Amino acid sequence: MKKSLNILLITLFFLISLTACSKQPVNKKEEYKKTLTYSNLTDSLSQDEVRKAMKLAGITNESIDSFFEDVNSFNSTIEEKSLVEDGFITIDSLEPEYDLPAMQEMWDSKNLEFMGYNCRITSYDLMKDSISIGKPDTKNSSWLIFDEDALENSPKKLFNEDQLEEFKTLYSFIPTENTKDISVHVKNIKEDWKSKEIKFPNKDKKSIISVFFHDEEGYLFIGHMGVLIPTEDGKLLFIEKLSFQAPYQVVKFDNRTDLNDYLMNQYDVSWDQPTAKPFIMENDELLEGYRENPNNSESDSK
């Protein structure tokens, strides 16, 4: 069973990387987000803006420098193919268009062993000094084989041994029940993280945003993750790496419901599945403003 579970989780993870439940979703009456303002950090002005927000949020200088080193390396490697050329732009869609095959071809031609960093590695590198894990437990981390391969073949050492153990603890899959009721799954996440003493200090300044998926074997896993920080003008910045050979992206939102609509539009796309819909956690709580994807034909939010 363990072997079949690993194969299933790895397959699900791979599909999510490439594309990268309550029956009573909240905020039904609010207008659903239809536009997106984002940047790929190709210019100094956008980088300065995001760097300033990171510092105000309390992210360490070491983590900030590491992040922008990785951003510049990726953008240079793919020759900024189909990226935003300057600053932030707004599009009439929730899905930026990228030439992902061309990006992957350029990346692979210059990186024979290193597959790049993904959302989990990027988020943890930014937040590793802001997450406390008192009792690391990595027994359910076998599905992270691609993450471990990326870290092993990385041109720089991102994490020491203790940090790697905490990384695997944070992203371990979590046993749950075979139900579509996300309140049950949220409860199981909280209990699992409490047993590992996973805590998020200073959560008023910066947050981990996790998109959880439920598989038929009865497990929860984080399929996508990013970092959420406020700006001086009251907006929110969501910082993410879309997948190993897909771009870094920073998206501006007015509120958490807009963030929810963006993420659920990306990941709540299946129908007639026997499992719960994807759901979003901010640190160790269900995201304020969580609701289903209205563009999904099965959504109760219509």
TrEMBL record:
Residues 1-22 form the signal peptide. Keywords: Signal. It comes from the Bacteria. The keyword Signal applies. Pfam families: DUF4300. The keyword Glycosyltransferase does not apply. Residues 37-287 form the DUF4300 domain. This is DUF4300 domain-containing protein. It comes from Tissierella creatinophila DSM 6911.
